[in-house]
Specification:
Blueprint: H1 3-22, H2 25-41, H3 49-72, E1 85-86, H4 96-100, H5 104-110, H6 115-126, H7 131-138, H8 142-159, H9 167-183, H10 186-192, E2 193-202, E3 214-215, H11 217-229, E4 237-243, E5 246-253, E6 256-266, E7 269-276
Parallel strand pairs: 2-7
Antiparallel strand pairs: 1-4, 2-3, 4-5, 5-6, 6-7
């Protein structure tokens, strides 16, 4: 098997790691291109291409994240991950744990971790790598890696709301949300959301979006209805699709993505709404 065949064999895994590390499909593809160049130039005999390439991509992502943190300090408004949109869940992974780790809620929680902590946690908890391989990748001891995973797991669990809804129940709530939004029914929208619901809106300074997270079901419901009725904004066509392997809403204008809504649930209510309006983060979806 030549180098191209080997790289192609593990490409989906490498992208999965890079996207979860960076929250950007564009940046993930950049990391894979850089990894491919380095893989071609590698002179040493590689016993395990999977381990070698995974470590290579992980280290590239750690470096990118460190520089990205500086860039995000200058980012206009709220930063959200770049959405992965699909018409069918067949375009994403079937593994439930991998699917959950793609959600906006999970990716946003990872933002509280340092680049190295993020890498260790993802490689162990999501991709089930051995601690020995992880330690070698990040340059830390095995006990230190175990401690970081344990601390990160406890920290993330505390911050995650509990939700036991089935996929069908979530779809019903999102459909009700969409119907109420289309009808401009503020009271119906309020009934679907938790009282302390939060709306995160990422326009990147290039589209109309709230500069700070909005809090409270009443405020958010009225804001959503206002933008739906606005004559300044384009007349969008919303539909339910798969966004980051979860059900969400894709809003299109003249056949092109204009924005996306992703959801996090608590109990039987919507706890968080993640709205991506930044056109740069929707370019990958424009065919």
């Amino acid at each position: 098997m030549d180098r191209l065949e080997i790289f192609t064999r593990y490409r989906s895994l490498l992208f999965a790691i890079a996207y979860r590390m960076l929250g950007s499909a564009t940046d993930a593809e950049d990391m894979l291109q850089e990894a491919w160049i380095r893989w071609q130039l590698t002179q040493a005999i590689v016993q395990s291409p999977k381990a070698f390439l995974s470590s290579l991509v992980t280290r590239l992502c750690i470096d990118r994240l460190r520089s990205a943190r500086v860039q995000r300090e200058k980012y206009v408004g709220v930063w959200l991950p770049e959405p992965l949109i699909a018409e069918s869940n067949k375009d994403f992974e079937d593994n439930a744990e991998l699917s959950e780790s793609l959600s906006f809620a999970f990716l946003m929680l990872l933002e509280c971790l340092s680049p190295t902590e993020r890498a260790i946690f993802l490689l162990r908890e999501v991709f089930d790598y051995d601690y020995a391989d992880i330690a070698k990748t990040v340059g830390k001891s095995i006990p230190n890696c175990r401690q970081i995973v344990r601390r990160a797991r406890q920290h993330l669990i505390v911050r995650r709301p509990s939700c036991n809804l089935s996929l069908q129940q979530k779809e019903e709530i999102i459909q009700q949300f969409l119907n109420s939004w289309n009808q401009g029914d503020v009271h119906s929208l309020i009934s679907l959301m938790a009282e302390d619901v939060i709306l995160w809106s990422d326009g990147g300074g290039q589209a109309i979006a709230s500069q700070k997270p909005l809090h409270g079901c009443d405020k958010i419901a009225r804001f959503l209805v206002a933008i739906r009725r606005s004559k300044v904004l384009p007349k969008i066509i919303p539909k339910i699709v798969q966004i980051n392997d979860c059900l969400g809403i894709l809003n299109t204008f003249e056949g092109k993505p204009q924005s996306t809504f992703s959801f996090e649930f608590s109990g039987d209510r919507i706890q968080s709404i993640f709205a991506v309006v930044n056109p740069d983060k929707l370019k990958q979806q424009i065919k």
